[in-house]
Amino acid sequence: MSFHFQEFLSKEINLLREEGLLRELKTIHGAQGPWVDLGGRRTLLLCSNDYLGLASDHQVTGAFTSGVEEFGTGSGASRLISGNRSPHEGLEKAIAQFKGTESALLFNSGYHANIGAIPALFGEGDLILSDELNHASLIDGCRLSKARVLKYPHKDCASLKKMLRENSGCKKKLVLTDGVFSMDGDIAPLPGIVELAGQFEAVVMVDDAHATGVLGPGGKGTLGHFGLEPDCVDIQMGTLGKALGCFGAFVAGKKELTQFLTNKARSFIYTTALPPALAAAACKALEIAGRDQCRRDRLWENVRFFKEGLEKLGFDIMGSETPIVPIFIGDPVKTMKISACLLEKGLFVQGIRPPSVPEGKSRLRAALSASHTMEDLEFALEVIENVGIN
């Protein structure tokens, strides 16, 4: 039987459509903000990760503009060739200071960081214990590593302890977790994980993408949230494209860690470096995030107000502890119909379906920002109530 590529594509697309799993792009015009132009209509944006409202902040955009004027638009090569510029090194020093680590290394995205660091550090014969709800980039990093991977039940330290005990003979072990889980908005039990890792001589890696700038004193992340010292965790990953409003990512830890990754992480070695102007902008955003507690206070006020409003209306927010607020629906087709209904009424809240979440766990995923006003959130709650999600 002959294979027809176009027929294959059409069949798969139709299947996705029938199952309510077909994804399509929506175009937002203009700058990031609480209200955006979507399809020529003023729409309240309630699904952006711009938690601190820094993506359009004039200080950050000013640093980017100045960086373009001084360094141009592109870096021209990978950092190990000729793409290493002073803003890259300046940002790495700032990240290390912010996170309280000896060193940091830039990557082009959180995905690049995870699929680069994990396979570089762990391989055949090693063991990775991964939370079952970890981000796709962590899952793919595990697959690329070719290490043995065991998933432990979500946030279940008792099960994690049992698995560590049963595999105590394995020489090199990694406990891998998100700090904030991106689809549920809950926080990893990091103190328990760190304690177990110490008992069983395991390495700990935390993906702090959604916690950096948001959790803990000064927005330092999940470790700060729990009052843990930076050295408690061997590998910290974080992104520049969420609360910091820019783009890129980093791995932070001991100097030997970043030196090793510079030489071994393929996604670092074989990628053109981030534009230096972007690094300059991220450095300014990091500075603002560290000193401007008022932004975080506004963010958390918004989070409390919105969650209380949803709970009063009887919605299941799935135990969210952060600015990520899921609204449980269950069925993927129903989820996308409700998302489309909300959009018609001027509220953009994206529906999330498998494989991003488990089967039967489709939900609307709202995300709050410091740039939202109480009036914005009152409007959102009114629209959600009127659409009648239940």
How does this structure look, described?
The structure is a single chain. Helix 8 links the parallel strand 7 and strand 8 (203-207). By secondary structure, the chain is of the alpha/beta class. It folds into two domains: 28-52 and 293-387, Aspartate Aminotransferase, domain 1 (Alpha-Beta Complex); 58-291, Type I PLP-dependent aspartate aminotransferase-like (Major domain) (Aspartate Aminotransferase, domain 2). The strands form three sheets. Strands 4-10-9-8-7-5-6 form a seven-stranded mixed β-sheet, sandwiched between helices. It has a four-stranded mixed β-sheet with strand order 1-2-3-12. The chain is globular and about 55 Å long. The protein has helices at 5-18, 58-71, 79-83, 86-99, 110-121, 136-145, 157-166, 190-199, 222-226, 255-264, 266-269, 276-291, 293-312, 332-344, 374-387, and strands spanning 28-29, 35-38, 41-45, 103-107, 127-131, 148-152, 173-178, 203-207, 235-239, 249-253, 324-330, 347-348, 350-352, 362-367. It has 15 helices and 14 strands. 48% of the residues are buried. Helix 4 packs parallel to helix 12 (276-291). Helix content is 44%, strand content 17%. The chain starts with a helix and ends with a helix. The mean pLDDT is 95.
Short description:
This protein is of the alpha/beta class and 390 residues long.
Order of secondary-structure elements = HEEEHHHEHEHEHEHEHEEHHHHEHEEEH
Q: Return residue spans where pLDDT drops below 50 for at least 5 consecutive residues.
A: none
SSE class: alpha/beta
Report strand %: 15-25%
Q: Number of helical runs?
A: 15
CATH architecture of the largest domain: 3-Layer(aba) Sandwich
Shape: globular
Largest β-sheet summary: 7 strands, mixed
How many domain modules? Answer: 2
Class of the largest domain, according to the CATH hierarchy?
A: Alpha Beta
Cα radius of gyration in angstroms: 21 Å
Provide the CATH topology of the largest domain: Aspartate Aminotransferase, domain 2
Counting DSSP E segments of at least 2 residues, the number of strands comes to 14
pLDDT averaged over residues: 95
Q: Order of strands in the sheet with the most strands?
A: 4-10-9-8-7-5-6
